[in-house]
Protein 1
Amino acid sequence: MKKAIEKKAYSATMKAPAKRPTPAKTIKPSESKSLKKQYVKSGAICKVTFRLPKEAAADAKMVTIVGDFNNWDLTENRMKKLKNGDFTLTLDLPCSREYRFRYLIDTNKWENDWFADKYVPNDFGADDSVVVV
């Protein structure tokens, strides 16, 4: 009986262990930004991988990337839809330039890149995304 009382008194004085915070989901570097740049050894070309996350293109069937690098052609650079719902495309761009661009979702909705190097106002009252290579 004495041991039971001592045990109860001991447990009453012990502090409950602090709850550990739930760790945030670890984001891989390739997933954390939509723009990935790989410079070719010659320095003249940069392979830029554009990624539009599924959150920006929910239920999209088709996304094209439109910008200075394709004379704002609405159909030239169709992006590939990944299994996770993101859209991606890699383009070889000449270096030492800035390129304005936007994503066109299902031919009727424009979206900027959430991780663009910067944004520049356009003539239509919105902003263009900019990638600097």
Protein 2
Amino acid sequence: MSEDAARTGQPGDPTAEKDPADWVTGDEPATGAQKSYLSTLAREAGEQVPDDLSKADASRRIEELKDETGR
């Protein structure tokens, strides 16, 4: 399971999603997968994202860009 889809309960239970601010590894650098997905979403949204995001910040930005792009 990916970090940006971390869950604490049953799979598919939206109430079980952990807030990125509560992730133990949230301060670590964003993963390669997060950076790749962010790059794709940012390009579609016509935006730029910094390269030095943490895992938690990358996850939040992914969610924002998904809303913007309709993904």
Protein 3
Amino acid sequence: MNTRQLYLIKLGEICLKGENRAYFEKRLKTNIKKKLKPLKPTFRIQKGRFFLETNGGPQADEQVCRALETTPGLVGFSKTLKLSKDIETLKESAKILMKGVFDTELSFKVISRRSDKSFPMDSYEISCELGGVILEAYPKGKVNVKNPDVIIYVEIRDKAYMYSSASSHKGPSGLPVGVAGKGLLLLSGGIDSPVAGYRMAARGLRQDAIYFHTYPYTSDEALEKVKDLAKLISPYLNGTRLFVVPFTKAQLHINAHSNSEEHTLLMRYCMVKIANIVAKEVRAKTLVTGESLSQVASQTLESLTFTDSASDIPVLRPLIGLDKEEIINTARDIGTYETSILPYEDCCTIFSPKHPLVRPDKELMIASYKKLEIEEMLQEAADNCERFEFTYS
């Protein structure tokens, strides 16, 4: 017989929404249900709390945790006990909940919240009573109200709910994917762009991704690396599609018909042009890139001004003010760093000139682009994209 497991989900920014809060909550429920469909999830919302119940019991806990940890819109969640509202039940449950935790001299405290004022004990009394029971059952433990190793949480609502910080997990925070429309992520094989996609997903943006492949100058291994990155970030994006652009013909044309110091800027301008075409086809309203101000020559204000002019939809850069260490730390957190540093170079690296322009003149660069007479070639590249699907699991 299948058992049901309860999880308490804590919301963050959604709680600040006014009359349209229900829209954000509905989207979050939809995103979670999509990921956990085989477990037949059900929801109940009660005064700032989401209660999620799933089939499968403890055996499905790993699947649930992975799904919730990669779902923007929630700040945290905990496996939770639903109990009858009497103090004896709470005492026994507190001892069971702490079993195995106090194998060393850990400190703890109990935090209680009594929403049901008909319960005969107030929050302070509940905490004191349960703390005493835990100390009696586990003599190695000690109370520390300022900086405990473990916290037991008790909420008295329609039922009593109990969980511990030892079984709590963090979520990505932000807003549910889908509430902010749709974008197209320019995904390279580097560290930055997967982080950019993750950051915009946490702002509610659905995203497909696009990659520019210059085979044989960039290898099949480089393409597989990008596909792996798309797969790694797809749970945060609630699933995504990767469009692979055959860029070799355009790349060689740029190199043959422009000055070497302009190669990188013209290449990126053409990439944005193609991305703009694909974005319209998939009904994306913005482009997303992993650029950080002044990180490399193509990311100065002057360079960004030029490449932005290739698009008639906004270009979002969520990493623009971050330093490399901050970006790397996030990449490690979301599990993309080790894949990003694999030694398979993308076309931006392979075709980069020794002395690129750092502060280009926009009008002169546009004139250089027009001399390429490359529009039909870019449209052809956009038309011949190869598409790969990645699910949210």
Protein 4
Amino acid sequence: MASVNKEMTIGDVLRLDRGTAPIFMAFGMHCLGCPVSTGESIQDAAAVHGIDADKLVEELNKFFAAQGEK
């Protein structure tokens, strides 16, 4: 099972599973395809967008945990 942390980039997470895109979108991160998404950490991107990085990572890890249960 994959595990997400705040040091990973959005691109890292999307490479693990593109099914995470709706989670990013729900948090207001609509720039999934922009070049910065491959070089900026989730922590940094969350700060720019005014998002709680811990909550985002928690939701992403819930997604991956659910995938592991299938």
